[in-house]
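Backbone-to-sequence.
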């Protein structure tokens, strides 16, 4: 991998209406309740009533890197279809949640573009890319399972 970024894509399918999935995803302060890898979320700045402009510090516990702290700024919110944010800190990049309602299910696609800002990450990216993907997939599967339990729904996830 020669580019200084890594694209990570995950798919969740939850047997629950999109509005309920949206409410959970649009409430980062609630993530630690259901997402095992989210240790804490602290609001640094409030945005508009629909979310954009808000800034939150999110502490993650990841299989590969251990503790990772990022500041996430909400930059787009279209209820109940899309949430988009940009982050800085231990990792830098942007991401989007896309929700699609479908006959008793909600399909969720998460696309994250991670900028490899640390020299060692860029240098080792060709070797570490599979490990980055493995770590991310585990965090996302746990998020899907936790959200399904939280919403009392069945679910499936794929990296």
């Amino acid at each position: 991998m020669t580019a200084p970024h890594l694209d990570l894509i995950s798919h969740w399918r939850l047997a629950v209406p999109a509005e309920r999935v949206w409410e959970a995803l649009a409430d980062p302060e609630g993530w630690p309740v259901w997402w095992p890898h989210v240790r804490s979320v602290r609001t640094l700045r409030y945005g508009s009533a629909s979310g954009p402009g808000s800034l939150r510090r999110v502490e993650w516990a990841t299989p590969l890197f251990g503790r990772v702290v990022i500041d996430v700024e909400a930059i787009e919110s279209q209820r109940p279809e899309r949430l988009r944010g940009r982050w800085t800190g231990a990792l830098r990049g942007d991401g989007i949640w896309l929700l699609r309602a479908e006959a008793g299910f909600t399909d969720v696609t998460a696309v994250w573009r991670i900028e490899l800002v640390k020299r060692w990450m860029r240098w080792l990216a060709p070797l570490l890319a599979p490990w980055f993907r493995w770590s991310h997939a585990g965090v996302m599967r746990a998020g899907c399972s936790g959200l399904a339990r939280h919403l009392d729904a069945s679910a499936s996830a794929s990296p």
